[in-house]
Amino acid sequence: xxxxxxxxxxxxxxxxxxxxxxxxxxxxKYENIPFxxxxxxxxxxxxxxxxxxxFVGHLDAIVPDLMNDPIYYERLHKHSKLKDxxxxxxxxxxxxxxYKWWNxxxxxxxxxxxIRNVLLLDDPSGKMxxxxxxxxxxxxxxxxxxYMGIYDRDLRYKFKSENGELWSKTTLYxxxxxxxxxxxxxxxxxxxxxxxxxxxxxxxxYASEPFYAGKKFSGGVAHGLTFTDIxxxxxxxxxxxxxxxYALFLYKNYCDNFSSEKxxxxxxxxxxxxxxxxxxxxxxxxxxxxxxxxFSSNDPVLQKALSIYLKxxxxxxxxxxxxxxxxxxxxxxxxxxxxxxxxxxxxxxTDSYCVLLQKEGLNSIxxxxxxxxxxxxxxxxxxxxxxxxxLKTDNSYEMQGTKNGLKELDRKQTRYKYSPAHQDVAVxxxxxxxxxxxxxxxxxxMKEGENTLVATLLGPCVLKTELNNIPVQIRELTGYPYKxxxxxxxxxxxxxxxxxxxxxxSWVKTFTCNFRYTLQNGYIVINKTVENNENVHLKFxxxxxxxxxxxxxxxxxxxxxxxxxxxxxxxKGRAYSPTLSDYFYASVEKKEFSVLKNQKPTxxxxxxxxxxxxxxxxQKEKIKLIPFGxxxxxxxxxxx
Length: 640
Fold this sequence. Notes:
Maltose phosphorylase, domain 3, 6-stranded mixed sheet, disordered N terminus
């Protein structure tokens, strides 16, 4: 037994839950609003619809072999063969066993994205497709014990090596939870409860080893730690403590076993010399199990561990909010040119920060979420075609497969390109790119107490909910983050007293509001009796900010990072359909710019104009910087 478990408990399966779990739920700042009560509007809605018409809505058509694999119905057994995923395996060091369960991740993350986009956009044909999928998945559940997963009876819950037992369930159940919250279909909730209870019965707390997987690479087992996502959400729905108790057990058991993905293990977190090194996606998704564990226990060690881990993540996060890992972190710190980041990691860190925002309510966490979504995530999308970058860097000088033209000796690198699928590597980033915006939207508003609505993340959306059994609608009309003016149109069915809290981002120096307000911990608080319709007008004033990074400088205006768009040559690659293809980009210029000192950049019409020195001609030039998220090739940091 390691130091961590000695500290927390003496192993004794017959002890009560309270003794063995050291369980005590901590008070959480906000309450999540059910999925579907917040819907996108404006440019966010347009982008989501374009995604649904593009790669998100048609991923099953462009990689049919992966999506048609009946892995949840014709389950894996002892004699199952490795699956051909159509990807290049040259240089992979992860082992082959993962290829058996991998389709469950691809399918379920995509279905999660499809469900959320279709329901939020109220897409008629998509809703029929989603309903057929839900019915088919529910029919796959074993009637006798409630098992719902990818393994037959000769394998399930009997592993001593790499497997996807908990991971395949996590990815599947997240989509089912979203569907239940939107539709209130009790059959879906009952199926989920039976399925989760089946896990808890077969991996009983403190009397089983769900994370024992030997001493080799075990990426699927490590992904399975995010089963705490399901536990946390089921607790929020049912208010049954057993789900959060089980989440705490899962985190403890993970720390007690060997894992190739060890950044989140407590002994490593508490080691002051330790540097993050694991597969980036694991490192950033594992923040959620730590958050849930810390808020499920009153132990100060877990609180300290959470604080340390968040600081470590800051050190491996680039200017745009992107967490590095191309695909491993490898003990490095963030560098805008030399460390890339995976789209999966962008989504996972955003989701983890959203969980932390709900539990802590800190303005600074919301700033990080907006930075990551509005800069990193947008900056890894192709602004002209329906596809995303698997790997990307902040300073991006070419996208032709390798990182800014550098050859990697240890693996065949093809990830630095734009694709709707990325099947040559893994169809993981494209499904997650479809999930990130719906997850952001569902966290744009939260509740505090009985009568307070909180605009936590800013952007165009509409909230339809109830306070004290009175229907309330708030339409947030704005072009944010490209414009910093807001109109909150409030509609109630009858006279209502409630508090409206609107987050004031940290970059805001001054603002105007047409209602009397107070400022509390970074929130604009309006205590108002609403008779029928009220309109809150809010305007944030922004300045060009010149930041220093090491010896370089970079520019922001409001929530957005700005970059010089490098002229490029587009090269079309593999065509999946008449409208969906891979794209590569080569730079058509070799110059870089350094910024001249003692100047005043100017802002006009969404562009920053700045005086620079051309590295090729050694002449002064005035160039235009545009929002980071609207670029493909770019220079974002400049020598001073």
